[in-house]
Amino acid sequence: MISAGLLASPFLGSVAADHSALLAVPAASAKPNKEQVADAPRLASVVNFRDVAGTGQGYPAQGSHHLNKGVFYRSNALTPNDADLATLNALHLSTVFDLRSSDEIAQKGDRVPAGAKYENISIFSGNLSTGVPSFTSPDDARKFMRDINKSFVSDAGERGKFADLLTQLADQQGPAVFHCTAGKDRTGWASYLLLSLARVDDATIMSDYLLSNDYLAVSNAATLAQIKAAKGEAAAAVYAPLLGVDRTYLQAGIDQLVADYGSVDKYLKDGLGLNGHTIEQLRHKLTQ
């Protein structure tokens, strides 16, 4: 048995079914809206830092548009070394949204780039305060990750936190970054919502979600090596599903959303309580 509480914070960022009615059909001949900014820099010390809009021309969206880069960034814990902090300073971020709990922040606080405000919106904090279960198998760990994503839909408190984040993102006057610890679960759900409301197709959204496995590959391999050395290969196998992402994790949240609300639009309006103006502000920032 291995307790996720021993190494809890790294995994808490945290499509098999066809939800073509839920997400928009991709635009095959999408054109850039305007001259795009540079791709998000790859940071040696903040390994899962990337642009919500993707790379190159940005992700294609319905209506022959590509998403605007340089608007919203996503990340793991914002703890850059000096060189990476200088790179972040050059992005002129307006706000850093930290989605971690107070306990996670106490372990390692953010280094906020120059000129940026810092906002803490603790998502999943209630679940963390009651403790993290122990797991006896990889299947237990995978179920835990699926349940996390379901809670982003079913838990009223969590919905309120995502509503707060999206409302503040809509009101931002400059580029913003949001992050959790690993930048994959809480951050992944927020990115899913932004890409969905921007009418990016479901396959692209899932591919973007799974990119965390690539960005975190080196650090996750090092973590698993440490666990294997300390507790053995079986313990590392149990813990491995917590470190990365799997399409079934996000799909569990999507399935819960469909069951409870029927569509992303209904979830945003009825579940999160967002008004049409806020949703349109976010869509405009990403697509116009």
UniProtKB/TrEMBL annotation:
Belongs to the protein-tyrosine phosphatase family. SUPFAM superfamilies: (Phosphotyrosine protein) phosphatases II (SSF52799). GO terms for molecular function: phosphoprotein phosphatase activity. Pfam families: Y_phosphatase3. It comes from Nocardia terrae. Coiled coil: none annotated. InterPro entries: Prot-tyrosine_phosphatase-like, Tyr/Ser_Pase_IphP-type, Tyr_Pase_AS. This is Protein-tyrosine-phosphatase.
